[in-house]
């Protein structure tokens, strides 16, 4: 029989539509603006402190929706997003320095939907708000760090070959080594040039002032700087992923800048601290009393500046050798970081500790910082910001080597669980190849996102209304079928994007509007084909069957072509272009399903079981 579906097809359509309805429902429950309270030492706040915050907020006229306790933290949900900043300031003032107050967006999806793993769509930076950072990579520091690493390797090489040298010095693009005699310098030059062919070598001085100067070539400088930016890109992406931000954007801009956009992040201080942290670790041996002074360095402890230790300049390994790191507590309840090294790092650590049993080894915490000073140009009168970079070094642990260490060990001596957690995060994500500085910082508030959402939804509603009216006027009953299928199409699109965790942006909303137009385009092709078949003398049942069968090829060809374009846009595009491509791709697939199966099912149910004299089309 023509225009009949078997039962299993109807069941498939019902199951898909029911699943689409369930997984699109969480989008009707937007996230609640909230403030998050936690103890600065990582433990839970007392209920009396939370009650004091509630009272202070109520006195200031800030509406509280709910108060919840989650994992040693308290979440206070607010009625209005405009009250968030004021609520945070009031809570911070009430609790003082003993607590940390951060902005948050709390999920409002009902528990029964959460039990089905249903969650709302992720909104992009332009809809949800968030932070935009423009970071600048310190290229000179990248060169200095590379030369310092080379200097350490050269010192180890010279000691292994028993060649006497007095000093190594890094300045700009050059690394210089002083020797006791020209003969030692010439021997060293032959050895060093074999292992470091990328330097230009120059002899300076004579006698006991013999010096070997090694300069980086322009090509090598460019390669180091390009590597520093690319390596920082990878590290920043890892750090952002550790923060749990959905669909962040981390991309290069120009020769030495990186753009980072974090949708939904409202605690900008915490985000800035993690993203911009330039901390790294170095593992060094404590110097012996008879070690020459040019091979040692005296450094203070990080948590006690009155204590210091004399360390070797040579580094055993750095944080770059860490493959994984996690926070935990030792047997006395103090925070520690458990570290696993990669193969090379484990070998170097084992070699150094195996031959130095009973000797102290230090864990050195290194952080690159900058201080901005504002001065006035005497000629123009304009304010000029001068950035002065500096490096902070501090010992966080100095322990005796009891036995040879391998790939796994732990770091103690940390001040708080928060510090241990952040150090573990930085070690997991990798250290930066060069320091970065914040050249620009912008915060997009939720009010702007709400306005964008309102305008985007208005565009969808206007487009949907115009399409519905056109289909009803033009195709009557068949137009009603198309409109019902269009509603299902939009529901499925939202459900799939929610399930995949795709991010909806303003360009993505444009993709939704385009999807609505393309969805009815398939129905227009089918309905016009049915009209044509009826004009050619076919019966109503034959015209319906021929209309769907003969329009199928044209519809699939057109949609596959558009899908290929969307895939190309996603593969080569970034940011907004990807958001548009994702929405368009999903919309094409849902349009094919609703236009070819859902409308056909409704037509079959209406006309398939009885003789039809006239079609309202």
Automatic annotation (TrEMBL):
Domain (Protein export membrane protein SecD/SecF C-terminal) ranges: 439-603
> What range(s) does the SecDF P1 head subdomain domain occupy?
300-434
Where does the record place it? Cell membrane
User: Where does the SecD export protein N-terminal TM domain lie?
Assistant: 2-103
Q: Which InterPro entries match?
A: Acrflvin-R, SecD, SecD-TM, SecD/SecF_arch_bac, SecD/SecF_CS, SecD_1st, SecD_SecF_C, SecD_SecF_C_bact
Q: Name one Pfam family in it.
A: SecD_1st
Report the main location listed first in the record: membrane
Q: Which UniProt keywords apply?
A: Cell membrane, Membrane, Protein transport, Translocation, Transmembrane, Transmembrane helix, Transport
Q: How is this protein situated with respect to the membrane?
A: Multi-pass membrane protein
Keyword Ribosomal protein carried by entry: no
Span-the-membrane segments of this chain are 7-25, 456-473, 480-502, 508-530, 551-573, 579-599
Describe the location of the Protein translocase subunit SecDF P1 domain by residue ranges. Answer: 229-286
Q: Which family does it belong to?
A: Belongs to the SecD/SecF family. SecD subfamily.
Q: What does this protein do?
A: Part of the Sec protein translocase complex. Interacts with the SecYEG preprotein conducting channel. SecDF uses the proton motive force (PMF) to complete protein translocation after the ATP-dependent function of SecA.
Record's NCBIfam families? 2A0604s01, secD
Q: How does it assemble?
A: Forms a complex with SecF. Part of the essential Sec protein translocation apparatus which comprises SecA, SecYEG and auxiliary proteins SecDF-YajC and YidC.
Protein name (Swiss-Prot/TrEMBL): Protein translocase subunit SecD
**Gene behind this protein:** secD
């Amino acid at each position: 029989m023509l225009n009949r579906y078997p039962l299993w097809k109807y069941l498939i359509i019902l199951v898909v539509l029911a699943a689409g309805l369930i997984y699109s429902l969480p989008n009707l429950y937007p996230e609640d603006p909230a403030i998050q309270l936690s103890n600065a030492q990582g433990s839970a706040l007392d209920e009396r402190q939370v009650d004091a915050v509630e009272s202070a907020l109520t006195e200031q006229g800030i509406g509280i929706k709910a108060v919840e306790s989650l994992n040693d933290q308290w979440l206070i949900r607010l009625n209005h997003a405009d009250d968030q900043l004021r609520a945070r300031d009031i809570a911070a003032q009430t609790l003082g320095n003993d607590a940390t107050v951060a902005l948050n967006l709390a999920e409002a999806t009902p528990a029964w939907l959460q039990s089905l793993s249903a969650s709302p769509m992720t909104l992009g930076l332009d809809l949800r708000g968030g932070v935009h950072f423009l970071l600048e990579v310190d290229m000179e520091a990248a060169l200095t760090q590379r030369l310092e690493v080379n200097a350490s390797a050269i010192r180890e090489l010279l000691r292994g070959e028993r060649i006497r040298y007095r000093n190594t010095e890094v300045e700009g693009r050059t690394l210089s080594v002083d020797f006791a005699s020209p003969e030692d310098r010439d021997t060293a030059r032959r050895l060093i040039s074999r292992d470091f062919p990328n330097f230009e070598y120059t002899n300076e001085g004579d006698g006991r002032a013999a010096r070997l100067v090694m300069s980086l070539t322009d090509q090598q400088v460019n390669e180091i700087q390009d590597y520093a930016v690319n390596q920082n890109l990878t590290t920043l992406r890892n750090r952002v992923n550790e923060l749990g931000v959905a669909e962040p954007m981390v991309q290069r801009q120009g020769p030495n800048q990186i753009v980072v956009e974090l949708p939904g992040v409202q605690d900008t201080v915490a985000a800035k601290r993690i993203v911009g942290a330039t901390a790294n670790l170095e593992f060094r041996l404590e110097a012996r009393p008879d070690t020459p002074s040019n091979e040692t360095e005296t450094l203070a402890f990080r948590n006690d500046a009155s204590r210091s230790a004399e360390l070797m300049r040579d580094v055993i390994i750095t944080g770059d050798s860490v493959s994984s790191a996690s926070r935990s507590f030792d047997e006395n309840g103090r925070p520690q970081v458990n570290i696993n090294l990669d193969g090379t790092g484990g070998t170097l650590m084992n070699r150094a500790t195996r031959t130095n049993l009973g000797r102290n080894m230090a864990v050195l915490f290194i952080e690159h910082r900058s201080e901005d000073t504002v001065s006035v140009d005497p000629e123009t009168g304009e304010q000029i910001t001068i950035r002065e970079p500096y490096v902070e070094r501090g010992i966080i642990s100095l322990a005796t080597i009891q036995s040879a260490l391998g790939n796994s060990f732990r770091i103690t001596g940390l001040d708080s669980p928060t510090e241990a957690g952040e150090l573990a995060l930085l070690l997991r994500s990798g250290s930066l190849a060069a320091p970065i500085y914040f050249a620009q910082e912008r915060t997009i508030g939720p009010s702007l996102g709400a306005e964008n959402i309102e305008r985007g939804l208005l565009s969808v509603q206007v487009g949907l209304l115009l399409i519905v009216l056109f289909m009803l006027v033009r195709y009557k009953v068949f137009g009603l079928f198309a409109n019902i299928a269009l509603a299902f199409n939009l529901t499925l699109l939202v459900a799939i994007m929610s399930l995949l965790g795709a991010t909806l942006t303003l360009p993505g909303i444009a993709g939704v509007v385009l999807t609505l137009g393309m969805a009815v385009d398939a129905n227009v092709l089918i309905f016009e084909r049915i009209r044509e078949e009826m004009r050619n003398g076919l019966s109503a049942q034959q015209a319906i069957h021929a209309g769907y069968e003969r329009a199928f090829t044209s519809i699939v060809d057109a949609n596959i072509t558009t899908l290929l374009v969307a895939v190309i846009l996603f593969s080569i595009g970034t940011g907004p272009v990807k958001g548009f491509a994702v929405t368009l791709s999903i919309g094409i697939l849902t349009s094919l399903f609703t236009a070819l199966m859902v409308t056909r099912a409704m037509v079959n149910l209406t006309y398939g079981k009885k003789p039809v004299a006239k079609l309202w089309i």
